[in-house]
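Sharing a chain and its predicted structure for anyone who wants a worked example. Both blocks are below, sequence first, tokens second.
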Amino acid sequence: MVSTTFTTLVPLAFAGFASALNKGLALTPQIGWNTWNTFACNISKHTILPAARAIKAENLDKYGYNYVIIDDCWQADQRDPETKVLPANPDKFPGGLKKVVDEIKNLGLKAGIYSSAGVMTCGHHIGSLGYEDIDAKAWSDDGFEYLKYDNCFSQGQFGNPKISFDRYNAMSQALNKTSGDPILYSMCNWGEDWPWLFATEIANSWRISGDIYPSFNKDDDRCPCTDITMCDLQGFHCSIAKILDFAAGLGQKAYPGAWNDLDMLEVGNRGLSLDESLVHFSMWAMVKSPLILGNDLTKMTNQTRAIIKNKHVIDIFQDPKGSPAVRL
């Protein structure tokens, strides 16, 4: 469990690093769509651009959905031997990522990219650890405005908040050096090393738990934690109810520009009933978690449309005061 001494010293230890929040980003939590829950590694421009067009066709952008995030498996097999820039997989993105970003921007939307604060990503592709400045500049040059930054293959650089802070701050500083549009920084370190103690200084959002899966309240041994303040293995296959339990005590850690991230939405995916989907979406909105859709936007049911376009819920979510709901 994190010590009282460390908790007390965190603001002093990390003073002077609060630069991620000075760009006016995420004054309300981010809202958009991510490739992973539907497509996993089976992505290309032929899956991403139809989703972007569906956001416009469904008028989702009118409700705030403006980020189109390319998750893992976009990468080529190696970096450029001279520049060390990591290009996109030429079979998936034959014109490179910039052409895809340009098409997304032409729709009036913003493009996001993925990497990991490790030598490899969770999908066993090349990561960004040690290449933060190079990768941040390349993404900025391509026009990206969002980074989801994962936590796989970190070379043992975890175990206390200061170690994790240093690893994630390297990318935060690299993003702040870029000269293009500001890049929203979404830390995805699964709640490891209590990011709510330090991530407010360097990121716009931080994951609080292991990965979600489309179950409302089914226990799964692969998500072993029962108390996030005393958790050595975050795991995955965490149910919606369990993640909400984790979030219950963290509302005071979030504020405009810095948010607890309960993971991507499972609304519209198999595994949830209509009532469970309604509660899932509404509670994510009420606790001010980012609302990142993970369903196939080109094949939505009317029930899914009704949930994700609920203006009353989204108005609560986008309350400019940014006050998360608390459990009584």
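Comments welcome. The first helix runs from residue 4 to 13.
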